[in-house]
Amino acid sequence: METVIERIEQGRFWQFHGGIHPPEMKFLTTNKPIRTVSLPQRLVLPIQQHIGEAGELIVKPGDYVLKGQPLTKTTVPLAVPIHAPTSGTIASIENHIIAHPSGLNEMSVILMPDGEDRWRERHIVENYSQLDKNTLVEKIANAGIAGMGGAGFPTHIKVNTKAKIDFLIINAAECEPYITADDLLMREHAASVIEGIKILDKILEPAFILIGIEDNKPEAIDALNHEIKQFDKIKLCVVPTKYPTGGEKQLIKILTGKEVPSGVLPSSLGIVMQNVGTCHAIAEAVISDTPLIKRVVTVTGQALEKPQNVWALLGTPIEHLLQECQYPQQQKRHIIMGGPMMGFSLPNTQVPVVKTTNCILAPSEKEIPDANQEIECIRCGQCAEVCPAQLLPQELQWHAKAKDSEQLTKLNLFDCIECGACAYVCPSHIPLVHYYRVSKAEIRQQKLLDIKAEKAKQRFEARKARLERDKKAREEKHKKAAEARRARMNSGTEEANKEKSAVAAALARVQAKKAQQSGVQANTTNDDKKSQVADAIARAKAKKAGQSAPNGDAGDDKKQQVAAAIARAKAKKLAAKEQANDDSAEENINAVETKPTSAQDDKKARVAAAVARAKAKKLAAQEQPSDVGTDDTGKSPETISSTAEDAKKARIAAAVAKAKAKKLAANTESDDQRTEGEAEASTKDKDDVMAEAIVEPPQETSTSTQDDKKARIAAAVAKAKAKKLAANTGSDDQRTEGEAEASTKDKAEVTAEAVVEPMQETSTSAQDDKKARIAAAVAKAKAKKQAANADTDVKQVEGEAKASTKDKTNVTAEADVEAAGETSTSAQDDKKARIAAAVAKAKAKKLAEKAQKDNQTS
Amino acid sequence: MTVLIAILVVGLISLAFGALLGFASVKFKVEGDPLAEQIDAILPQTQCGQCGYPGCKPYADAVANGEAINKCAPGGDDTIKKIADLMGVEPIAMDEAHETDNTPKVAFIIEEDCIGCTKCIQACPVDAIIGTTKQMHTIIADECTGCDLCVAPCPVDCIEMRPIPQTTRNWQWDLANIPVTQID
Amino acid sequence: MTDYLLLLIGTVLVNNFVLVKFLGLCPFMGVSSKVETAIGMSFATTFVMTLASLLSYLVDTYLLEPLSLQYLTTMTFILVIAVVVQFTEMVVHKTSANLYRSLGIFLPLITSNCAVLGVALLNTYEKHNFLESIIYGFSAALGFSLVLVMFSAMREKLANADVPKPFKGSAIAMITAGLMSLAFMGFTGLVKL
């Protein structure tokens, strides 16, 4: 520590590596005082003029602002406010070209000065030494001061360091050619600069304050010496002129002999550096409450007739300054902002002066010739000799050309201060710095992309995890719901039964199934529903046996089974109906004699579906008893009709290789009831198959009626089949409509409808026996249909059976059987229809059966 | 006799070495493939699926197992070069089927057209779209990877891909536009 | 002791396997584009060469010679080398998957690296004893490694250098190798005849 000071006192300094001595060209402006320029027509104030974040706008177009009034406020630490440089009206807030090599536009406040230059209220601080540190830092922050040397780092951040500071270094080197702004500032405002240094001293409390100044500014040195006489703490260090002494790391090296390692801030070495211009601005801000609204700008270059330093309000367009300094209009050469070494060419002259603008250079043709043609590197190594950062410019250049960012990083490209010394000495006129700038920007961009990619990856993985979680939760929920449903079903209530069938309906992938039941009129109702869903897999087959054995009174027994078994698809369907014989019916009649007492409906529906992939089966069964029908016993009778037994069995077995839907619906009604049952089952295979079976047997006799209908539809398809069976029975002034539609969708569609409407109006026993079997077995495409009608004793039976099968074409099979019996005695309808269609590849079968019976005699 | 001895000796040596190798193959069994992780780190993580795999990681796995390295359209030639470096193979040209314009873009929702169907939200691989049913959606531009996947599901075509605007932050020096300025 | 040291230095510099004896040129050109890979290759080759010369010495001395089967030398040496290479490959695969990838085909190709067979055969011709054999194998590998790493470092720089177009790529690499060879020949001057 002592040695450093000792050496400084002896006037011995360290040296940094390399450096050059370009022509200084400072004589153009150094002998003229700083001039105040006239107010420009308008001021353009980019809201961000520093490194960090932009402040938040607090004015809007049309506002009248006073001089020094803040236009933005700071919301984050790295933000720096801007202030109105003069009084006037905000004309607009728009994107305006800014002082950036890209020539891009950024948000700027356009201020139209009113020429009055009216100040806002200011609070002069007489004695700043009584203020505490935080107040001082706050004043600096509010004044919008950002490093005025060129980088524009917010000063309040820089001075608010927690580290213990050994050296406060004031950078007055101003090493770049042409620029004399700091020189003139020190000459004319030395006292103010020193005041600013003292304020910094109070904030930072450094051990020593060093002012680094090059020996080519004797007048400034004199002025400063005069001011610092009383302050031992401040050492004025006059260092030899060499470019780039003014670089932060270089000046630190010269004054203290310390080297700032790569990627480390000087403050961690106990060193803080400030520019003289910044010191002046700090003094102004703290003492006279003047925010940073103007700065000294060197307007120079041999193209100008009157190069001079000027006090330029921030926001002054360059055009205005050039005019003030008499820039010949015919000159169309580029204007450089900053010095000749580190500056950049301006895209046009509307660019405003900002906080970091220290020089406007308008060179003549002779001064800075247009770009020399770049030629190959001759490996002279001069660039490495002059590099103040001790890099290897020539290797950097190769790698930069090859865009090898890895190697560039390895070679410490980011320690390059872009001083331009290497390019200056290069005999091949290689614009080395430009290559570095491009590469730096690319690497920075790549890093941003990497960060973004990493973020995207995390978000992607988080999303995946979330979806997975959701899926599990959903499955869990479904499982629970299913359990709850099962529990409810097992409770055996009426609703449970309904639900059961509903569940059966909505299995797997599903299809539409429908079961309707309507029951009207009933005193006593006994509903018994059973549905079974049996899944038989693979080659399994579904079989169904349904039996209804009506005892004594009346019994309806319906069973429906839908069994689907796949092994490439077979479907079999069996419907069996059993009805009590005449005997039993007569027995019943004898027992009860006239009118039917009880009716029992028993329906069972079994749906067995075995699906390899998805099947849907549905079963609906309904039962409804008659008027009087009380109970099983059926002894209470006495009313009207005797017994009605409905036994229906339907089997639908559909086996689909891929997807099938089966539906079965069966309805029964007895005693002045009307039952409509619709069951739709539609099967889609590669073809469309529609099968309709409508059986409408009306009976009007009064005696016991037995309807026996069997419908079998067996469809075996190689790939998809659909079967449907519907059976209805009605007795005693009843009308039963049963529609069964089974639609299975596979690659094709098969629709089968079976409508059975039995009407019986006679009083005697009537037996309707209808069997419909549809078996479709076709090698390739066959359709067979059988319709059988049986009429006994004064009945009319009309049977129509149509079967159409669709193969690769469309085949529709319809079977209509209409049987009408009008006699009073027992009538038996027996209808059988079989359609067997078996297709090797895709077939559709349809069966429809209709039977009607009318018996209206009695 | 000498022949027999020779055969015996060579046979014995071979047997011994075989045993050694067998032991080594068990002892030094390699598990897992850290290569896939490294490839994944190179990929741009747009999760766009243009390579034919559902995301960058699956493609990385596939590349580690021999899939062509030139299928990452968003990554472009840079990514191919990096993967080639890592794998020690020669860089190859971008697969033509996957060649796309890879200027960086972000999705943009034309908000007055948005019907709030949430379809794009489901499509977004990085959850960069916010909104809910019947509410207007919007894109978090910073998180958007420009993968394009939300464009197709939109029923009203209110999403478009816009190039990322150039600002001073992402501006890059253009060598052609920098005048070489030296003083004499 | 001095003999061993001389043997080592002599093999590494004066009689460098690559640049003077021109053995093992295949990996020398093949895996020298990146320093990292070259270093990995060096380690693998060093391991293989040392182990191979050791084993081949044992096989030769204790099996082939007593049974007068010297005519099988080449065959058995190749067998030994193949096994050692396989073994090395497994170890490398286990320890550094990256190196394993970047070495790629050159790792199993060590088997056919003539420097390895050369060192084993030279051991027999020069009638090296056990220790000499090991030192000879190791120093031959050391020489190989030295040259390989140096060469790859140069090639890495050459990759981005503005080499005249006709010389780009392998051409300049060959020229560089030739110049290196010339330079190594200079080491002959170390030996006073």
From TrEMBL, chain A:
It is an enzyme of class 7 (translocase). The lineage of its organism: Bacteria, Pseudomonadati, Pseudomonadota, Gammaproteobacteria, Alteromonadales. Part of a membrane-bound complex that couples electron transfer with translocation of ions across the membrane. Residues 462-486, 671-689, 732-750, 792-809 have a biased composition (Basic and acidic residues). The gene is rnfC. Coiled coil: none annotated. Belongs to the 4Fe4S bacterial-type ferredoxin family. RnfC subfamily. This is Ion-translocating oxidoreductase complex subunit C. [4Fe-4S] cluster 1 binds at C377, C380, C383, C426.
TrEMBL record, chain B:
HAMAP family: RsxB_RnfB. InterPro entries: 4Fe-4S_dom, 4Fe4S_Fe-S-bd, 4Fe4S_Fe_S_CS, Elect_transpt_cplx_RnfB/RsxB, RnfB/RsxB_Proteobac, RnfB_subfamily. Part of a membrane-bound complex that couples electron transfer with translocation of ions across the membrane. The gene is rnfB. Residues 1-25 are annotated as: Hydrophobic. This is Ion-translocating oxidoreductase complex subunit B. Belongs to the 4Fe4S bacterial-type ferredoxin family. RnfB subfamily. Binds 3 [4Fe-4S] clusters. [4Fe-4S] cluster 3 binds at C124, C144, C147, C150. It is found in: Cell inner membrane. The keyword Calcium does not apply. Pfam families: Fer4_21, FeS. Its cofactor is [4Fe-4S] cluster. The complex is composed of six subunits: RnfA, RnfB, RnfC, RnfD, RnfE and RnfG. [4Fe-4S] cluster 2 binds at C114, C117, C120, C154. It is an enzyme of class 7 (translocase). One of its GO terms (molecular function) is metal ion binding. PROSITE patterns: 4FE4S, 4FE4S_FER_1, 4FE4S_FER_2. GO terms for cellular component: plasma membrane.
